[in-house]
Design a protein that fits this description.
It contains 18 helices and 20 strands. By secondary structure, it is an alpha/beta fold.
Length: about 500
């Protein structure tokens, strides 16, 4: 009974969602969700054998061992003794008769996941509201703000972690219950055309572009080209949908024109008083900010439990989206007073040290020049009365192309403005910043995060505030995990 109560799909519903699939066996077990990872798969879920960085077909027996209700596989997959119900996908003939698949280059199992996600979106109640979030920075934080706010108003489904790519978006949709009141999906990209391929599956009522910055320059000729790629999100809006755009951005007009070309309603947000949703006042402190915002004729006051001016700006994007879908803003934003930063995106921990504590600010998940500056500005706001030294541990920002070294070295003014006492860096690009820094603040350099760990841990003492930030591929999360291991975390 419990499995039936938690079922997202029946087996027959699933087969109808994938018309190019044939069942090898028949499932009578209620389907509770979908998974692409046998390490986290729960009993009752369907395993989708994607052929991405690794071939998921190698893990099908393990999926059944973990309790999978079925596995979605390519037509030619050879059944193993441990296998249960298989859903075999074959697009060869179906592609020829269905124009919707002409643009697809994905493997058969990924297309199946996309179609399941599309069916999940289509079966939502007409009263349900869907919000999509993209941007060069702040996507996950804004999504989590909306998740928290909308949870005060109804049942919400939202992307896990940063499930925002070619498999993350359809997987999020596939796992969406049919009775949700709100859905919030994050959509990412690092090449032109990626958002355009994903957003039709989402069909949002409101689409947010948090900001446009110098990221993924390895794949784009200019930041303006990045803005055009972000604007692809407006192409998937439902009729009469709203485009939520940062008024303070130099690319506001470009994004506005692209949104209007899709017949979208444009709602601007930001610190600029010309915005439709703007902050009349922002009072920043170490624990967060107090914001008084104007949304049309309404004044909304709320507390935000995440420090940083950039976070306050992103909260205005969330308010604008709430306004766009007709939500009760005043009731919804009360949730922000208790919402901590997501892991790796500003989460704070107190580490025990001899004679006191060390404040660890974990920004290790991702970085670009704009978010790096924002994080350093947040470090600068840490009180000297509580923490005598401010230490920055910075790693490479990736996918910046030929401008990488210049953009890394250009962070020196932000480091100095933050009054950093010691600077530790890792990675070949970040070394250009380290070489340009004054000798008095140089704490150490290493090529890798692992090589930097002992240097940083050996330098820390009670009364320090240490901020760690880099692109995820630099793996500074290894360093923050090591620090939590060497210094006991307060409250654990």
């Amino acid at each position: 009974m419990a499995a039936e109560k938690n079922a997202l799909w029946s087996f027959d519903e699933l087969m109808k969602a994938v018309p190019f699939a044939i069942a090898d066996g028949h499932g009578d077990q209620p389907i509770t969700g979908f998974s692409i990872d046998t390490r986290t798969l729960k009993p009752g879920e369907v395993f989708v054998a994607l052929t991405d960085q690794r071939d998921g077909h190698d893990f099908v027996p393990a999926a059944f061992g973990a309790g999978a209700a079925a596995a979605i596989v390519d037509a030619g997959y050879e059944r193993k003794d441990a296998d249960g119900v298989l859903i075999r996908c074959d697009l060869r003939d179906y592609r020829q008769i269905n124009a919707q698949l002409d643009r697809e280059t994905a493997g058969d199992t990924l297309v199946a996941l996309q179609w399941i996600g599309d069916s999940a979106r289509q079966r939502l109640s007409p009263s349900a509201r869907v919000i999509a979030v993209t941007g060069s920075a702040g996507k996950t934080g804004t999504k989590e703000m909306l998740r928290a706010c909308l949870s005060r108003l109804g049942k919400v489904h939202a992307s896990q972690r940063s499930f925002n790519n070619h498999w993350g978006v359809p997987l999020t949709l596939a796992n969406m219950p049919r009775d949700v009141d709100f859905a919030v999906l994050e959509i990412g990209m690092n090449h032109a055309g990626e958002i355009a391929a994903l957003v039709p599956w989402v069909s949002p009522h409101a689409a947010i572009v948090t900001t446009v910055e110098a990221v993924h320059l390895e794949h784009f000729e200019s930041v303006e080209a990045i803005a055009h790629a972000k604007a692809e999100i407006f192409s998937g809006l439902v009729s009469g949908g709203a485009a939520i755009i940062k008024r303070d951005s130099p690319y506001f007009d470009l994004l506005r024109v692209r949104a209007q070309a899709e017949a979208a309603r444009v709602i601007s947000f930001g610190l600029d008083g010309r915005a439709d949703v703007y902050a009349q006042s922002v009072r920043l402190d170490e624990e967060g900010s107090d914001i008084v915002a104007r949304a049309g004729h309404d004044t909304i006051s709320y507390r935000l439990a995440m420090p940083g001016r950039h976070i306050a700006e992103n909260s205005l994007a969330a308010v604008a989206a709430l306004q766009a879908i007709g939500a009760d803003i005043s009731k919804a934003v009360e949730a922000l007073a208790a919402l901590p930063p997501p892991p790796g995106r500003g989460a704070r921990s107190l580490l025990k040290a001899a004679g006191g504590h060390i404040l660890l600010i974990d920004e290790s998940y991702n970085a670009n020049p704009a978010s790096m500056r924002a994080a350093l500005a947040t470090l600068s706001g840490v009180s000297r009365l509580k923490y005598a030294r401010k230490i920055a541990v910075l790693g490479d920002m990736l996918e910046l192309g030929a401008a990488a070294r210049e953009l890394h070295r250009g962070l020196l003014d932000a480091v100095m403005a933050a009054c950093v006492d010691q600077l530790f860096v890792c990675g070949p690009h970040m070394k250009s910043l380290y070489d340009a820094a004054p000798a008095a603040i140089k704490g150490g350099y290493a090529e890798t995060a692992e090589g930097l760990t002992d240097l940083v841990a050996g330098a820390l003492r009670a009364g320090d505030a240490v901020m760690v930030k880099a692109s995820n591929g630099t793996r500074l999360g290894v360093l923050t995990a090591a620090l939590r291991g060497r210094f006991a975390v307060e409250g654990t």
